[in-house]
Write a structure and sequence with these properties.
Elements (H helix, E strand, L loop, with lengths): L1 E6 L9 E2 L11 H12 L6 E4 L3 H9 L6 E2 L14 E2 L7 H7 L12 H18 L5 E6 L1 H12 L3 H6 L7 E5 L1
Length: about 180
């Protein structure tokens, strides 16, 4: 089965603000960015289309012609809990340094660790393997964190390499699962 992961377009959030699981507005360039994504998807024939339920993914799925995309919370960005919508340099939580030291396993206060997000993604993959035909091409409109886990699981990258990989808004990642 082929899985096509599509990262949402850019958001209207100032640089340095922690916004993972928050439903934030899209930037004013949405139409131009979404048009480019739609062009890249031209020619694909998807048996199923999924999307994170966050607006930035749903709107892109709709723009690309998939208004009935199945909303799946396992495709959401990481939940930063109490840190959501705060500037990283303004977070006074003593756990922040613990998280910087081990962001894979330490969860932000009230949020989830990167490993928890990875488990959500793996659960989504298990469901696809169970419910979809091996010949099917599946699309999922999602977030950068999910793409990072996919790079490690399916592209042979380490987490250090994956977190260092530039994954621009609108990235399309083709995976054979």
């Amino acid at each position: 089965m082929e899985l096509i992961l599509i990262r949402h377009t850019s958001v209207a959030v100032p640089r340095g603000v922690c916004y993972g699981n928050s439903d934030v507005p899209l930037s004013g360039t949405f139409e131009e960015e979404a048009y480019e994504v739609r062009k890249k998807l031209h020619g694909y024939r998807f048996g199923r289309v999924y999307t994170s339920p966050l607006t930035r993914c749903v709107r892109l799925a709709e723009y690309c012609g998939y208004p009935e995309a199945i909303r799946d919370s396992r495709l959401k960005e990481m939940n930063f809990g109490e840190w959501e919508m705060k500037r990283f340099d303004e977070i006074s939580d003593p756990r922040l340094q613990e998280w910087y030291d081990d962001y894979m396993n330490v969860a932000p206060t009230g949020g989830e660790s990167s490993m928890s997000q990875k488990e959500r993604f793996e659960s989504f993959i298990r469901m696809l393997k169970r419910d979809c035909s091996g010949q099917e091409t599946v699309a999922a409109f999602t977030h950068g964190g999910i793409l990072i886990h996919a790079l490690v699981r399916y592209c042979g990258k380490t987490y250090k390499e994956a977190f260092g990989t530039a994954l621009p808004y609108g990235t399309i990642l083709e995976l054979d699962i």
